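Subject: Sanity check before I submit

Could someone independently write out the structure tokens for this chain? I want to compare against mine line by line before I put it in a report. The sequence has 206 residues.
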Amino acid sequence: MLLVLAGNARVRVLAFMVLIVHPQANPRASYQLSPVSVLRCRHGGLPELTPRQRHYSEDGARLVQIMTIEMFTDGLAEPRNPGIGTYAYVIYRNGEPLAQDSGFVGDPVSNNEAEYEALIRGLNAILSYSAEKVVVMSDSQLLVNQMSGKWKVKKGAYKERFLKAKRLTESFKSLEFRWIPRGMNAKADALTKAAYYSYLQAKRPR
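---
Independent answer below. Compare away.
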């Protein structure tokens, strides 16, 4: 990895690179590499690389950034809990949209059942990316703390889905759960509500 610092105390110019030699390249060869990019950061942080900056090839060498999957999940039970349950997940791969889905869970189901249904469907959607780092973000403290092993699982209708989700996590190499405020989960939240109203609309007599 190459780090270049320049400029005054407030502005740093950073260039990051990882060298992976092409299998057909001469391992003893010396490569003249250019940085992936020159990025400016006012507070010394590391900005996210753009899609074009993540991959770069030159003379048999490749510059890459480790990929990260971010998954936002949400579950809903309306107009009361238990009630009509809907789920949603929104998935990004290094900041770029990868997948999203929402739909009906059941009636009646609890909010916790809907939350775990969203997690199960989201994990199933990214099984092919199981070797990459995955961060699951949810505004459900129960889900995040139970999946992280901090809270015990009590008897409840959601327990079966919890166990299913735990089995799914065994397929992933690196998996982390983070709690976020509802305001940071706006898209998944909006999708669960849209799925709820779509269900009500479909049930109305024509």
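---
OP: Matches mine. For the report I'm noting this point. The chain has two domains: 1-65, 68-203.
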